[in-house]
Amino acid sequence: MEIRKVISNKTDFMDILLVGDEDEAMINKYLGSSKLFALYDNNILTSICAVMEIDAETVEIKNLATYPEYQNKGYASKLLDYVCNRYKEKFRTVILGTGENDTTLNFYKKRGFVQTRRIKNFFTDNYSHPIVENGKQLVDMIYLIKSLT
Ligand SMILES: CC(C)(COP(=O)(O)OP(=O)(O)OC[C@H]1O[C@@H](n2cnc3c(N)ncnc32)[C@H](O)[C@@H]1OP(=O)(O)O)[C@@H](O)C(=O)NCCC(=O)NCCS
């Protein structure tokens, strides 16, 4: 297993980024100013993580995704661990926003994130089409936070 920092041609990873965030226009808003980390197993791309430095203390995970056929094998957990370890020297906190989807929220809560604020109507206001996960339309964005110290 190998994690590579993507240096150029970030848009080559659009396919897998769309697994985590269905809207290409939204991805393009953060891709340029995010660092991308790609996880490969036997040289096969399985997972991606986009990380943006928000301020001197905080980084935000803008996208974390695993191709459906490789999910539930521990890849995203490995990538999340790697990102938290990589940033903990210089930053104090990692935040991320996600839809109100119990599976996703539990994934992060099990890994030390706690729920903070809710942005009302984020998905209905900002996305060009309804985003449905687990049969439920996403409306609000839920922010989660984890201390890196
Ligand atoms: C959320 C998401 C990133 C998780 O990716 P993943 O690679 O499947 O994550 P992991 O395999 O590390 O963890 C998933 C589960 O598999 C379990 N797992 C870990 N190693 C495993 C293994 N070797 N075999 C089987 N299951 C394993 C984990 O314990 C975890 O369950 P838990 O949360 O109850 O502990 C992925 O489901 C995804 O891309 N979803 C779609 C996009 C999305 O909704 N993203 C979130 C918003 S950005």
Question: How would you sum up this structure, described in words?
Answer:
This protein is globular. 24% of the residues are buried. The strands form two sheets. It has a seven-stranded mixed sheet, with helices on both faces. The protein is built from five helices and nine strands, in the order βααβββαβαβαβββ. The protein has 149 residues and is α+β, with helices and mostly antiparallel strands. Helices cover 28% and strands 37% of the residues. It has a single domain, classed as Gcn5-related N-acetyltransferase (GNAT) (Aminopeptidase), CATH 3.40.630.30. The structure holds coenzyme A. The site of coenzyme A has 18 residues, from helix 1, strand 4, helix 3 and helix 4.
